[in-house]
Design goal:
Shape: globular
Structural class: mainly alpha
Largest sheet: none
Oligomer: single chain
Radius of gyration: 19 Å
Distance between the termini: 28 Å
Helix content: over 70%
Length: 250
């Protein structure tokens, strides 16, 4: 069996395992959609303006993908390391690449599902609008900008036990959400916070997806920041993976 076929098998059983606990799926779907419903829809100034409404929907779509990536990678890897099944899997001849791709496929699918309620509510109850090509480009930009969050989740999963991982993921998620302008638009930030915000991957993801959907100018710090975050978190994730392997399989 090829590595890709093995990755699809990992993804299939990862999704089945997630579906066995429906509340985990419901929470991933509900929180971003409820945030849009309670914090954006009642704000007539935002909800009735196509520009602001579209940006609000994009911001909460980024939040949905970010929270799904951080929680799924961080907690899944951390919990797997504490189960006897994980060391057994490492004794099998399948490559580690297929397991990582399996995580990416299954968690990526859940991230895609998580933004559907946000898009539906935004379309029904706000003036948000986008062309079909803009939506497709936005999905590509969302997938690219999700990589730093996935890699941060991998780092948390390999660095901490599950109880500590839950707390760290929550702190990271809400810090990134507020500082990145996902709950409040950066136009409302103080100048110092607006400058600081540009260093966060959540702000860079927001600006990249807005550019892909609505067009306009893309500042160099957006794509440069995403590349730096991907390189730095990938290097850290590789180091933590090898450290974990050296400790438990020496």
């Amino acid at each position: 069996m090829s590595a890709m076929n093995l990755a699809l098998v990992h993804a299939k059983y990862g999704l089945l395992e997630t579906m066995r606990i429906p509340i985990a799926v419901i929470s991933a779907l509900a929180f971003p959609a409820l945030a849009l419903l309670f914090f954006v829809v009642p704000q007539e100034v935002v909800a009735a303006d196509p520009l602001f409404a579209t940006q609000a929907v994009i911001s909460l779509s980024v939040f949905a993908v970010m929270s799904n990536s951080l929680f799924s990678f961080g907690l899944t890897i951390s919990e797997d390391r504490e189960k006897p099944w994980d060391p057994y899997l490492r004794t099998l001849p399948g490559s580690g690449v297929s397991r990582v791709l399996g995580y990416v496929f299954s968690i990526g699918t859940m991230g895609l599902v998580a933004i559907l309620p946000v898009i539906v509510i935004g379309r029904l109850f706000t003036a948000a609008e986008a062309s079909l090509s803009g939506v497709l480009l936005g999905l590509v930009a969302l997938a690219i900008s999700a990589l730093p969050f996935m890699l941060i989740g991998v780092c948390v999963g390999y660095a901490m036990p599950s109880k500590a991982a839950i707390a760290v993921v929550q702190v990271v998620m809400f810090s990134f959400a507020f500082a990145g302008g996902l709950f409040l638009p950066p136009i409302m930030f103080a100048p110092w916070l607006d400058t600081l915000s540009t260093f966060f991957p959540s702000r860079q993801a927001r600006e990249l997806v807005i550019w892909a959907v609505q067009g306009g100018e893309l500042h160099p710090w957006v794509w440069m920041g995403i590349l730096v975050w991907i390189a730095a978190t990938a290097a850290l994730a590789l180091f933590l993976f090898r450290r974990d392997e050296g400790r438990r399989f020496r």
